[in-house]
Amino acid sequence: MTMPGTSGTILWLTGWSMPNSVFDKLQALLPEFHHGFINYSEAGSMVEMLAITETTVREVRVSAGSDFMGLQRPLLIGGWSLGGLLALRLASKGFVDGLILLAATARFTSPKEQNDRGWPDVYVRQMIAALKKDRYAVENNFRQMLFTDAEWKSGLGEVLPPIGSWTTSSLIAGLQVLREEECLSYLPEIHCPVLLIHGAEDKICPYGAAEELLAQLPQGRLITIGECGHVPFLGREEGIAGEIRRWWYGYQD
């Protein structure tokens, strides 16, 4: 396994309602990469959220520059959940050299007969309506679904950052992205390496969503985390960092 002197940049896209700090420990365990964020926690609309992601990645692509041999430094995007859907959208436009998708999906909402791949749209619409009345209750209820019973008993839920880092407008915008964005149609045209990391017991983005991605991504690789819910990296950062390192450097040999 070759570890290049300049491994490139990982641009992280967090999940719905979550602050960027949720990735702090994982970043610290990958010091050979530069790290950055696409921050959409104050986006006022779906259109603004999509514009922020695209503008930021364009700017990072330019600023990443070249190494001492004149070769362009690679740009990877690490996306969790909502961030994974946005990452796929960016990859389809040719902005990135590799994707790390954590508990991601190509389409968050699915027909009732495909509930092994996503949520019914009505659930997301109900969340949007409820946010306008009691946003804390909506975020708290969402967090209850993030972990398995065993993960809750282990205290993993206590590791999450506090509720309240997003504006109400950005929470609604994120849910609108989850309702309306659909990346399935262009998965076969995403030819960069893609590492999929997914919990086998994910209640937010069901495991079938990961299988759907794997079946259609030309260079996809799936790592399944057993007895794991929707946050496959939390509390497992050391092992996940090792998997990311082996996957990416394996492509450089």
Automatic annotation (TrEMBL):
Signal sequence extent: none
Domain AB hydrolase-1: 71-240
Pfam families for this protein: Abhydrolase_6 (PF12697)
Protein's name in the database: Pimeloyl-[acyl-carrier protein] methyl ester esterase
Originating organism: Paenibacillus prosopidis
